[in-house]
Amino acid sequence: MAFGVLVVGLLTACAAQPAQQVNPAGTQVTLHLDKSGNPAISSDEEQVLSAVRMIQDGKIMAAIDGPLNAVISKFETQYAHSDVKVYSARGTTDALIYAALVTSVAPGQKVEVLGPAWAMAYWARGYAYGEMARYDDERLELEKALALAPMDAQYSNELAYVYVQKRDWQNALEYYEKAGEFADFNPTNAQSMKCTSFRGQGYVLVELHRLDEAEAKYRACLKITPNEPKSLGEIGYIEDLRKKPH
What we know:
Layout: H1 3-14, E1 20-22, E2 29-31, H2 43-56, H3 60-79, E3 85-88, H4 92-105, E4 111-114, H5 117-131, H6 135-148, H7 153-165, H8 169-182, H9 190-207, H10 211-224, H11 229-243
Parallel strand pairs: 2-4, 3-4
Antiparallel strand pairs: 1-2
Helix pairs in contact: 1-4, 2-3, 2-5, 3-5, 5-6, 6-7, 7-8, 7-9, 8-9, 9-10, 9-11, 10-11
InterPro entries: TPR-like_helical_dom_sf, TPR_rpt
Keywords: TPR repeat
TPR repeats: 119-152
């Protein structure tokens, strides 16, 4: 079955009511949606957001030991012995795509598409670890977030940046490229995520001495956000590098 057809089928099936089970190709898919058709907001998400505010206020360990561990423990306990494939979606678009991806490769697989809280909790705990310069722990948390939300541009961009800090240019470039590909799945911040992806790719390509490709990436960001200062500054830096003797 074509991917687009499957997504349309899921959209049609979900149009009548906000939260239900659909069963394409014999696969049970449960979408947890609110009345507007978006992934349901829960108290868990509010806890994660409160934890982010705590981290920004410098209460890093309190955020980890309190709301973040509580939310993560809840979901990990709930699904520890489950054979259900779980995804964590920000919006209707990625929720339906996650459902469609699984049904296309694993007929009969039970799937649950939750709201964003679980993946956000891993991301936020990674953010906390990053603030403490625990970059390997940050990477592990972002990988957990991406396991639940594999097409989330923000998580891909941030994992790419972790690899930049480790000077692992190939992995950094790979995740920045993925972020650019996935940005449109969350229309609310697609342009911002694309620009972050292009700037990240540009930075890595400069480090790899691929200056023409790097400049093209920065110019791609400028097409989205004209006069974006970081891209303009990096293009100036590339021009200076070209003037230096090799």
